[in-house]
UniProtKB/TrEMBL annotation:
Cofactor: Zn(2+)
Isomerase is among the record's keywords: no
Organism whose genome encodes this protein: Flavobacterium succinicans
GO molecular function, one term: 5-amino-6-(5-phosphoribosylamino)uracil reductase activity
Protein name per Swiss-Prot or TrEMBL: Riboflavin biosynthesis protein RibD
Length: 323
């Protein structure tokens, strides 16, 4: 997500933003929007992320700025992508363009925190999400007579918000027990948007074939303990060593699959693994109006200062691991 503004003689003469991957970048839209191109030779272009310097899905923006004879460039933050990473700035400076770097840098990095985490830490941005009862349970005690379906803790408005969140991230991860108990779809059916890639931990291959996560409707990664050669449409198997650091291996594989963000919606065991390793960026916790009195205890986070809000009958806690 990148924005750009062009200013000449104290007035904005052009604006642009990056609308979609593979389409023209913010600088291109901004320059194209300038009606009188002769003004560019006395203008300053502001851009929230370093202009690219390589041929990817689009030509280099740094070259366009040079050809447009714009004398000054103000950049919010350097691009961490190894294909850019200072090369765009170097290209501009070699063309005698005055470059200012690091203006509102923190805000520009926050805008693309998934992108920066992916490139700087070589892993996806991790969001923990769960719902718990008033008395701290994520589910009642298991009952063998229950059908494989969720037991809702939150109200429909909260559930719709969760589907909106799913549409904003690239992957969603759950463990075996969640699939066995709830038979979730892990999609965005209550919101308009793209379904995230489903990531399933199924160490021993216990998930029944009729489970929604195996319906091949959405790209799905399944992590098992054994090499699996039965990849199907939209269904891919990855073997990892569960005797070693499972979380580290999972994140390495998600990085290999170029997934920049993941929501961890698994049960307590799965989520607590990420918490105990301090491997998370955000936590989003719903507290419903229901009480179970006994059951499966909710994950335990280190003490933080959450932002609190209400959604009808539910309370929503938002936490950052960097506060």
């Amino acid at each position: 997500m990148v924005g750009s503004v062009i200013v000449a003689n104290g007035k904005i003469i052009g604006e642009g933003w990056h609308k979609k991957a593979g389409e023209p970048h913010a600088e291109v839209h901004a320059i194209n929007s300038v009606k009188d191109k002769s003004q560019l030779k006395e203008a300053t272009i502001y851009v929230s992320l370093e202009p690219c310097s390589h041929f990817g899905k689009t030509p280099p923006c740094a070259d366009l700025i040079v050809r447009s004879k714009i004398p000054k460039v103000v950049i919010g933050t350097v691009d961490p992508n190894i294909q850019v990473a200072g090369k765009g700035i170097e290209r501009l400076q070699k063309s005698s363009i005055q470059v200012t770097i690091g203006v509102l840098e923190k805000e520009c990095q926050e805008l693309n925190k998934r992108f920066f985490t992916f490139h700087n830490q070589k892993r996806p941005y991790i969001i923990l999400k769960w719902a718990e009862s008033q008395d701290g349970f994520i589910a009642p005690s298991p009952n063998p007579t229950y059908e494989r379906s969720p037991i809702w803790i939150t109200n429909p408005y909260s559930r719709q918000l969760v589907h909106k969140w799913r549409s904003e991230e690239q992957a969603i991860l759950v463990g075996t027990q969640t699939v066995l108990s709830d038979n979730p779809k892990l999609d965005t059916r209550d919101w308009y948007g793209q379904n995230p890639t489903r990531v399933i931990i199924d160490r021993e291959g216990r998930i029944p074939e009729e489970s929604f996560v195996l319906d091949q409707n959405v790209p799905t990664l399944i992590f098992t303990s054994k090499k699996h050669n039965e990849n199907k449409k939209n269904c891919y198997f990855e073997a990892i060593d569960f005797e070693k650091n499972t979380v580290s291996q999972l994140l390495d594989k998600l990085y290999e699959h170029r997934l920049q963000s993941v929501i961890i919606e698994g049960g307590t065991t799965t989520i607590q693994h990420f918490i105990d390793l301090n491997m998370w960026d955000e936590a989003r916790i719903f507290i419903g109006a229901i009480s179970f009195h006994s059951g499966i205890k909710a994950p335990i986070l280190p003490k933080k200062n959450p932002n609190k809000s209400t959604i009808a009958t539910d309370e929503l806690l938002l936490l950052s691991n960097y506060d």
